Amino acid sequence: LSYFAPFHSPGSRLTRSTDNEKNLKALAYQAYDAEDYQKASELFVSLIKQQDDAIAHLCLGSSYLALDKPEEAERVFSHILQSHGDLVTSAKWYLALTFLRQGKIERTKATLWEISDSSTYGKKAKEILRKLD
What we know:
There is one protein chain. By secondary structure, the chain is mainly α. It starts with 18 loop residues before the first helix and ends with a helix. The protein is about 70% helix and about 0% strand. The radius of gyration is 15 Å and the shape is elongated. It has helices at about 20-35, 35-50, 55-65, 70-85, 90-100, 105-115, 120-130.
C-alpha cells in the first residue's frame, strides 16, 4: 500500500505506569520504533491484556498491517471504533487501508468518505477515493 505508513505514536519513547507495565510498554514501543513489527505486535498483545489502551491498539493494528496480516488488523481497528472514542479518525484511516489491502473496495470507499473532511487524513482519503472511481 503506497499510502500506508505506520502510525506515529505519541507513546513512543515514553514510559509510564508501574515498573512492570513500564518495561513492557517501553519494550513494545522500542520494537515498534525499530520497525520490528513482529516483536512489537507480540508485546502490544501482552500490554493490551494488562491495560485496554487505545494507542497500543492502534500500534498493534498498524503492526499487523505492516506484517501483511489484514484480518488481524481489521479486528483491532474495529475494536478501537467500538471501544475508544478518542482515536476514531485514525482508526478509520487504517481500517480503510486494511479494507483496500483486502480488496474490499466498497467498504474502503465508505470508510474513506467518513473521514474525507478530516484535517489529518482528508486529503489522502479524497486522493484514494478519486483513484478508486
